[in-house]
Specification:
heterodimer, A: 118 residues, B: 110 residues, mainly beta, 0% helix
Chain lengths: 118, 110
């Protein structure tokens, strides 16, 4: 069974940076678009970013554009999210999710918690 | 990039059917068939339930069905069971690579 495992979350201060990772257990990782989706404590899901299978296309929610950068390393079956200039409102569980077809997230990781607080 | 509108809560008794609505605009749900639905139990990651508005992935019970009309998508659960109690989220493509989720609906099985 395909698995996604996120890591890299933690407690940081406003304005600091953090890099999240998501490792896939499947060799076909490079065939799929991948996404980051977050969920603030007690709140709903919010799409954050998407990267195409070949890294040629990247997309961001307006709330993170210019601060977050998505990337991937298909040779290492890994997805990344570089988060700069973090704000309190970025506090959330961050999930990585596989997208086999348009806006269909079929496999999710367990999530990694990011807390931005003084 | 406004969130899709879902009812905050719905409820039903075991065996009954319920429908959760997801209202967007002519810029997202109304123009794209790329609507998906997710079930989330407390403390767990979301589970993929419906894609392309009305398609069910392998392994998802046929008690779950999706539809779309105009700017509103819907998820119907028939033969309600206790384990269906969860939060449900809709999601739609919004053009130019953007994606928007609904605010979520808490389903209570009475």
């Amino acid at each position: 069974e395909v698995q996604l495992v996120e890591s890299g979350g933690g407690l940081v201060k406003p304005g600091e940076s953090l890099r999240l990772s998501c490792e896939a257990s499947e060799v076909t990782f490079g065939s799929y678009s991948m996404n980051w989706i977050r969920q603030a404590p007690g709140k709903g899901l919010e799409w954050v970013s998407c990267i195409s299978s070949d890294s040629r296309s990247t997309y961001y929610a307006n709330s993170v554009k210019g601060r977050f950068t998505i990337s991937r390393d298909n040779a290492k079956n890994s997805l990344f999210l570089q988060m700069n200039s973090l704000r309190a409102e970025d506090t959330a569980v961050y999930y990585c999710a596989r997208e086999p077809t348009g806006v269909a997230y079929d496999i999710w990781g367990q999530g990694t918690m990011v807390t931005v607080s003084p | 990039q406004s969130a899709l509108t879902q009812p905050a809560s719905v409820s039903g008794s075991p065996g009954q059917s319920i429908t959760i609505s997801c209202t967007g605009t002519s810029s997202d749900v109304g123009i794209y068939n790329l609507v998906s639905w997710y079930q989330q139990h407390p403390g767990k990651a979301p589970k993929f339930m419906i894609y392309e508005a009305n398609k069910r992935p392998a392994g998802v019970s046929d008690r779950f069905s999706g539809s779309k009309s105009g700017n509103t998508a819907s998820l119907t659960i028939s033969g309600l069971q206790a384990e269906d109690e969860a939060d449900y989220y809709c999601c739609s493509y919004a053009g130019s690579g953007m994606v928007v989720f609904g605010g979520g609906t808490k389903l209570t099985v009475l």
